[in-house]
Design a protein that fits this description.
The protein has about 160 residues and is mostly helical. The protein has 7 helices and 2 strands, in the order H-H-H-H-H-E-E-H-H. Helix 5 (about 70-80) crosses helix 6.
Length: about 160
Amino acid sequence: MEKLEEGFNIQSGYLQNLAKEKIGIEFIPAVAPGETREEARRRVRSIFVHVNLTVVRLSKGQLASLNEDNGFAIVARTIAVTHPLLKKKEGREDRVNFDSATVAAKSTVLTTLQALQDMCERYLEFPFCTWKSQDRGLIPMRPEDDEMCGSFPVKVAA
């Protein structure tokens, strides 16, 4: 106890209270029985996003990168990695900033993932109004794959 108190500048009262603290732990299986790997990946990422929405605030770009429940974010990510103007190519700088919601003045990126998500939301919110939660604070259910892939009013050129 003395070494902990001295080495980490911790008071003995704090150490004694640690034994009384309760910590919630949830074990999340990597792949649940009857689940495909893709379904498992979505489930685990969805849990991660929900936890981080309530605990540690993610940047808008990070949230758009990880969010498996927001159809607009999923479409934006797909565009960012598949559209010839935006996708990564050997020999050229990245064209989409996946982390931040801003483009620095001297940056070589053309846009941000957050901006792509905002554009997708504005363009697709009328035909896909169910992708957006009607109640503030609630997270909408993830759209079905066939609703996101192939149902767009305008197809993205490959």
